[in-house]
Design brief:
Number of helices: 3
Order of helices and strands: HHEEEHEE
Largest sheet: 5 strands, mixed
Strand order of the largest sheet: 1-2-3-5-4
Number of strands: 5
Low-confidence stretches: none
Mean pLDDT: 89
Strand content: over 45%
Structural class: alpha+beta
Helix content: 10-25%
Distance between the termini: 13 Å
């Protein structure tokens, strides 16, 4: 999924190569995105694993303004939702949340805006 996002022209127009797995470096320039697997379910038959998996992946768009964070997640959703390619049998956008970073050591002036989007990924393999 990370490779799909990095190759997408719309996504690259706002994030460039600033899409990180799990956590962004502290020195990251906004806007940037973070991608992480929230959960995964393996499908089983009576004879063991069927090879089919379903995963919930969360992607967060961080930016200086709410509009920019929202635009970033919309571009990500456009790039991924409804896709079917390779091991991915289907990628579907689900829940979206608008958030701010509530870290007490950050002043309001430096807190980024954050928009989070969950995707359900139907795939084979790991």
């Amino acid at each position: 999924m990370l490779a799909m996002l990095l190759r997408d022209g719309g996504v690259a127009s706002i994030f460039g190569d600033r899409i990180w797995p799990m956590v962004a470096p502290q020195t990251s320039i906004r806007p940037y995105a973070v991608i992480q697997k929230a959960s995964s379910i393996t499908d089983y038959t009576m004879s063991g694993s069927s090879g089919y998996r379903q995963a919930r992946v969360q992607i967060d768009s961080y930016a200086e303004t709410y509009d920019e964070a929202k635009r970033g997640i919309r571009l990500i959703r456009t790039a991924l939702s409804g896709r079917r390619t390779g091991i991915f049998q289907g990628i579907f956008a689900e829940t979206e949340r608008d958030l701010t970073e509530n870290n007490s050591i950050l002043t309001l002036a430096v807190r980024p805006y954050r928009v989070s989007q969950d995707f359900m990924i139907h795939h084979t393999g790991d």
